[in-house]
Design brief:
The complex is a heterodimer. Chain A is mainly beta. Chain A contains six helices and 43 strands. In chain A, the strands form six sheets. Chain A has a 22-stranded antiparallel beta barrel. Chain A has a five-stranded mixed beta sheet with strand order 9-14-15-12-13. A four-stranded mixed beta sheet of chain A has the order 4-1-7-8, with no helix packed on it. Chain B contains two helices and eleven strands; from the N terminus they run H-E-E-E-E-E-E-H-E-E-E-E-E. In chain B, the strands form two sheets. In chain B, strands 1, 2, 3, 5, 6, 8 and 9 form a seven-stranded antiparallel beta sheet that branches. Chain B has a four-stranded mixed beta sheet with strand order 4-11-10-7, with no helix packed on it. Classes of the chains: A mainly beta, B mainly beta.
Chain lengths: ~775, ~200
């Protein structure tokens, strides 16, 4: 504690405030394929101010005065380029350099504009944001993005929801590879360590053209790490303590080049969390412990003509499911609702008993790219994924130790993409993908499988072209054709072996435009389609859902979901850039939208259960996200984020089930830097208000939606240099008033309150320049 | 530098060929069926709940049967009631079976082995029959319910219900007297079978 105090007090001397506080930041990339150019020098001519961009091309200069500067950017293998920068407010630049040893003439500096997803609304969570969210799972990290919420099953299982859609309707792209784990269940959190990536981008639009099926609500892209190409080792080590759950965690990352051999880079990363039972405001949430570990290693080579890399990651998780959420029948559910608190509250413990889940995910990816002409590059990727999941239920006669569900899912995926230029301006990608997947129920559970064994084969072709028109407008158009074949092997209830097969052929289209109306204003528009063949669980699942007291039944006749989504994204600065407002409006129309609908009751040995059958309807979803920030004073900012979404069942003319309720988050931020720009402190006090969901369908739910709630949060971060290295310190408190609340999109809201006060403390030591250190490293 | 569109037939050809080779496996029609997975025997399934009532002073045994061979879903259960005599005390036993295998698995033995974690609760609707008391105890001296006593009064009819709770709080108020209200736990069995008293 003494140490912590001395660290935090040492930030108080930050002292004399620099007079100017503008920030110039951006990224230096190769003009042709937008690969980041590492360690470019970025200099404001005549001011003595200069920085070196990081390994991933990012740079940042803080504490600049308003004025006109000459920005000079240089990189090995490129001619330096100079451009005038009129600095009135914070500015973000994308600097494109022509990086060919034999083409040193043409350089281009452009304002930042989206490229991969023209016209799509999106937001990136970078390493600094992830550090602020230390101790959270992927879903919770992403919930900071307006328009993203979570579908929870108790305190440890969070699935990201984009614009009201989740599960198989949100595609997760891990290191450029479709994450293939068991995403069909509400209690299946993504098996992914957010810290294995430097940047996670949420694309809030339908993007099946580029990524294939399932990208209906949006795409979560954990971007491949940009490896260093030279230099010594750098990295960071972090330790954290978590109050709620009385646990801790750690993560570490080291990367570097291969000595004098230019072009090679490597990176090793690992992280883990260990938690006991969480606390709701008034009681312990028994059997909600968590152990989680992940690690990854990457090795790559890159020069201007050829690149190749291998990446491997492993992720393992064991978690307990709230004991009180395991119920036998509707009477138990009614008792749980009447009781108002869990029927089982035990002593606080680190033990994880049944019901529990154990999951492991492996990803091996190999990639190679070759510039077949000066402008055209062929990139070939192969990825293997193995997902191993066991779910243990409460059973008699010592069968607790035997999984009730034991699935092994293997996926081979290969793509080839040709990045090409057609003429001087038009450029794009044409590619093919293939996927072969096998799901096996491992025998020995003594329980009839919830989903059957199956083999899924998918092949697709796509093309996306971009056409920039002048400096301010960029257009995009694309199309995809994809075919899926699903072969199922299962037994009927009277033990007859059947092998049903399904074929799905789908197309997707997209058109987008991004227009930088003026330096402070951007308009993006995109309309695109997406599709999703029904998952085998929607076709064939059959069984009792213990957490929901319902029998869920598949429907083998279901067709593919097809969606059209339109997104309009507006971004504008007001009052001399003191106020920034980003607004996203979205609307999607989904035909054959699959959901569970009550279909009578059935008598079982546990009593009568409602039967829910997967049914298709047509759905319309629309909503808006707001993200704004007002600079009140030199060091003070006020930010407001809000999102709202409405979902209608067009066939039955009623509301859709389980849509996230409206929410507003607001925070007052204080930031201060020392005169050397390397000591920093920031304090944010904020509140999140979540309204009651008033728009629910009739007869689909067992309980009324919970009331509105408000949470008070506070985050303090500080950084101070230690020579070339630095020490960062963070303290985050959530739900500081220990409010007792339940969220509408928490599946365990029938049984228990959500998490009470949580306090997380972390200390990070970054060495060798750190992974994300874009700060001055001495004037050039 | 001029960035004109330069077409290199060889290089593009190689690229397109590579794409096709990659696309091929996706189109390959694999007609070999994968091997059939083994048939799963539902180990914990309770297909049969049988309450056998024997008059304490001798007489005809009555059997109340709840039978559903295919488990949850599929065919509806077969429920068979029985007739009891008026003014009689009955000693009842519960038998739970999983009859999907051969020989059948006696699930009530598992309940007896884990007696501390299980308790039966009995209620009746209608008139003529009432549940009287538990006839067995676990190692802690708390009731189980595999054995119990029942009493008939005058003629009547209705249905009796058998509930088995897993991990109930046996020490909660009223639970040892057969009152389910404060028992908690999760329900393993909840069946209802008609009776006639004449």
């Amino acid at each position: 504690m003494k140490f912590i105090l001395s660290v935090s007090f040492s930030f108080l001397w930050l002292g004399v405030q620099a007079q100017c506080d503008l920030v110039l930041s951006g990224r230096v990339v190769d003009e042709h394929d937008r690969t980041p150019l590492d360690f470019a020098s970025v200099e404001l001519v005549g001011t003595g101010r200069g920085v070196q961009a990081g390994a991933d091309g990012y740079f940042r200069m803080e504490g600049l005065c308003p004025g006109t500067y000459s920005l000079r950017v240089g990189h090995v293998g490129c001619d330096p380029v100079e451009r005038r920068v009129d600095l009135k407010g914070d500015q973000v630049l994308e600097i494109k350099l022509e990086h060919h040893a034999h083409e040193l003439h043409e350089t281009e500096v452009k304002r930042k504009r989206p490229d991969e997803h023209v016209g799509q609304a999106g937001r990136t969570v970078d390493r600094a944001d992830m550090e602020r969210a230390s101790g959270k799972s992927l879903g919770e990290v992403l919930a900071a993005v307006p328009g993203v919420s979570v579908l929870n099953s108790g305190p440890n299982i969070s699935k990201p929801m984009v614009h009201g859609l989740t599960g198989n309707r949100v595609l997760l792209l891990n290191q450029g590879v479709r994450q293939e784990d068991q995403q069909w269940g509400a209690e299946h959190a993504p098996n992914l360590d957010p810290l294995s990536s430097d940047r996670i981008t949420v694309v809030k639009g339908a993007a099946s053209v580029q990524y294939g099926s399932d990208a209906i609500g949006g795409v979560i892209v954990t971007e491949p790490v940009a490896l260093p190409r030279s230099g010594g080792a750098s990295g960071e080590v972090r330790g954290l303590g978590l109050y709620n759950g009385r646990g801790g965690g750690a993560n570490a990352m080291v990367q570097g080049g291969l000595g004098s051999v230019r072009g090679f880079g490597w990176r090793v990363q690992g992280s883990g969390r260990y938690l006991g039972d969480s606390d709701a405001g008034r009681y312990v949430l028994s059997n909600t412990g968590l152990r989680e570990a992940g690690g990854s290693a990457a090795l790559g080579y890159r020069d201007h003509r050829f690149n190749a890399g291998v990446y491997y990651s492993w992720f393992g998780r064991e978690l307990g499911i709230l004991r009180a959420a395991h119920i036998g029948n509707l009477t138990d559910l009614q008792n749980a609702l009447d009781r108002g608190e869990p029927w089982f509250i035990g002593e606080r413990s680190y033990d994880i008993n049944a019901p529990r889940q154990v999951a492991q995910h492996n990803l091996l990816k190999a990639e190679a790219g070759y510039a077949i002409t000066e402008h055209d590059r062929l990139v070939v990727t192969y990825a293997y994924q193995a997902d191993d999941r066991q779910e243990y239920d409460i059973r008699r006669a010592g069968r607790d130790a035997k999984p009730a569900l034991d699935l092994y899912l293997t996926t081979h995926a290969a793509d080839a993409v040709l990045k090409h230029w057609l003429g001087k301006h038009m450029h794009g990608r044409i590619g093919v993908n293939g996927l072969l997947q096998e799901n096996d129920n491992i025998p020995g559970t003594g329980v009839r499988p919830l989903i059957p064994d199956y083999t899924r084969t998918t092949g697709g072709v796509f093309v996306v072209e971009h056409l920039p028109i002048g400096e301010r407008l960029e257009l995009e158009a694309g199309a995809r054709l994809e075919a899926t074949r699903l072969d199922v092997v299962k037994y009927t209830t009277d033990n007859m072996l059947v092998r049903p097969g399904h074929r799905f052929t789908n197309t997707a289209f997209s058109a987008g435009a991004a227009w930088t109306a003026k330096d402070s204003a951007q308009v993006r528009f995109n309309i695109s389609s997406a599709f999703r063949p029904p998952h085998v669980s929607e076709l064939y699942s059959e069984g009792l859902h213990h957490g929901a007291a319902a029998i869920e039944e598949g429907h083998a006749e279901l067709a593919s979901e097809r969606a059209w989504k339109a997104v309009l994204d507006l971004s504008e600065r007001f009052f001399g850039r003191r106020l920034r407002i980003d607004v996203t409006l979205h609307a999607s129309h989904i035909t054959d939208f699959i959901y569970l609908r009550p279909n009578g009751t059935r008598l079982t040995v546990r009593g009568a259960f409602p039967v829910f059958q997967y049914t298709a309807t047509d759905a319309l979803l629309c909503g808006a996200d707001l993200n704004s920030e007002l600079r009140l004073h030199r060091n003070w900012r006020w930010r407001v984020a809000a999102s709202t979404v409405r979902g209608r069942d067009l066939v039955r003319d009623e509301w859709l089930f389980q849509m996230p309720s409206d929410r507003v988050g607001s925070g007052l931020v204080f930031k201060r830097s020392g005169p050397d720009q390397r000591s920093r402190i920031s304090v944010e006090v904020g509140t999140d208000i979540v309204f009651r969901q008033e728009r629910i369908p009739e007869g689909l739910d067992f309980a009324e939606p919970p009331p509105a709630y408000q949470l008070l949060n506070c985050t303090i971060t500080a950084e101070r240099p230690l020579g070339r290295n630095s020490l960062r310190f963070g303290l985050r408190g959530s739900n500081l008033l220990n409010a007792a609340y339940r969220d509408y999109t928490d599946r365990f809201r029938y049984y228990a309150d959500a998490r009470g006060t949580d306090i997380v403390l972390w200390i990070t030591y970054a060495f060798g320049g750190g992974p994300n250190d874009h700060e001055p490293q001495g004037a050039p | 530098m001029k960035t004109e569109f330069v077409f290199h037939p060889k290089k593009w050809g190689a690229a397109v060929l590579a794409l096709l080779i990659l696309a091929l496996p996706a189109c390959k029609d694999d007609d070999e069926d994968p091997p059939a997975p083994p048939i799963v025997n539902e180990e914990e399934l309770i297909t049969t709940v049988r309450l056998t009532m024997v008059p304490a002073l001798g007489g005809d045994t009555a059997v109340f049967d709840w039978f559903d061979l295919d488990g949850d879903g599929g065919n509806a259960p077969i429920i068979t009631g029985d007739t009891l005599l008026t003014g009689t005390v009955y000693n009842a036993t519960v038998l739970l079976l999983n009859e999907t295998g051969n020989p059948a698995d006696t699930i009530s033995n598992e309940v007896a082995d884990e007696a501390e974690a299980h308790q039966f609760f009995f209620t009746t609707t209608g008139s003529g029959l009432s549940w009287t008391a538990y006839g067995d105890v676990d190692a802690n001296g708390n009731p189980i319910g595999l054995a119990s006593t029942w009493t008939t009064a005058g003629a009547g009819s209705g249905s009796l219900s058998v509930v088995l709770r897993h991990e109930p709080d046996k020490t909660a108020s009223g639970v040892s007297n057969g009152d389910i209200t404060n028992a908690g736990g999760d329900t393993d069995i909840e069946v209802s079978i008609p009776f006639l008293v004449q």
